[in-house]
Amino acid sequence: MTLRVPYVADETIERDAEALLAQYAHAQGVEVKAPIPIEDIVEKHLKLRVEFDDLHRLFGVPRNAFGGPNIFGAIWLETGQICIDESLDPEEYPSIEEFYRFTLAHEGGGHWRQHRFLVNTVRGFADTQQPTIVCRTSQAKERVEFQANLYASCLLMPRKLVMQAWCQFGRDHPGVLRRQDRIVNDTEDEILRRAFDRIHAEEAVRWLAVQFFVSPTAMRIRLERLGLLHREGLKTRIVAHPALFF
């Protein structure tokens, strides 16, 4: 089913993700660092049950043309059960573990924290054998999925930690980000500067993605939302110098 949810401001979603991290840190007596321990947060702190299964077989949905998943996960908000498609099992497919981590944050962070309070108004005391939400690629633009994706992004890539890592990247790779401090006066130099920015924006995205154990695509989107990168067509360039955040 597609759960209809009210509008929630992006800032509100980000604050709740930050609150969850603070609650976890306090409960465990630890300092939260990258990569975010999403399994501990979901299973030990939120006490949700996570399992793997062939969700396409369960729900009668074919996989995509390349054999990949059209369904990544499902959640039963009444019982706190999460099922992730077996194609994302990190023990079987460690090379794509970042997609498993994002799906876990999407289900256990996004849907559980934001949407479980809406269940009784939607399903009442209906049969809970079926999941409350099945996350399909075809519904990625639905508000319920957008909110869960944004929550997962804020949870796995917290603003403060990303800013710190961005600054660290600037210190470790000083030649990468300092060139844009120059005053550009002619068209040729502007073209060179933009090419330079695009090349090293990609390097920054890859480096930060490794630090936070997320996909480069997820990191690029997060950096764009934080105003650190700017997309030009199919390319991305740096728009903010890390020194601005010291």
Structural description of this entry:
The strands form two sheets. A four-stranded mixed sheet has the order 1-3-2-4. It has a two-stranded antiparallel ribbon with strand order 5-6. The relative contact order is 0.13. Helix content is 51%, strand content 11%. With 246 residues, it is of the alpha+beta class. α1 crosses α4 and α4 packs across α6.
Describe what is shown at a glance:
This protein is an alpha+beta fold and 246 residues long. Helices cover 51% and strands 11% of the residues.
Topology record:
Layout lengths: L9 H19 L9 H8 L3 E5 L1 H5 L11 E6 L4 E5 L11 H19 L3 H5 L9 E4 L6 H14 L2 H14 L1 H5 L8 H26 L3 H10 L3 E4 L2 E4 L8
Parallel strand pairs: 1-3
Antiparallel strand pairs: 2-3, 2-4, 5-6
Helix pairs in contact: 1-4, 1-6, 4-6, 7-9, 9-10
Please summarize the sheet with the most strands: 4 strands, mixed
Helix count from the secondary structure assignment: 10
Percentage of residues in strands: 5-15%
Question: Taking Cα atoms only, what radius of gyration do you get, to the nearest Å?
Answer: 20 Å
Helix content range: 40-55%
Query: Strand arrangement, largest sheet?
Result: 1-3-2-4
pLDDT < 50 stretches? 175-186, 241-246
One letter per element, helices H and strands E, the order comes to: HHEHEEHHEHHHHHEE
Quaternary state reads single chain
Count of discrete structural domains:
2
The chain-level structural class is alpha+beta
Query: How far is the N terminus from the C terminus?
Result: 46 Å
Task: Give the total of beta strands.
Answer: 6
Shape: globular
Look at the structure and give the mean pLDDT: 82
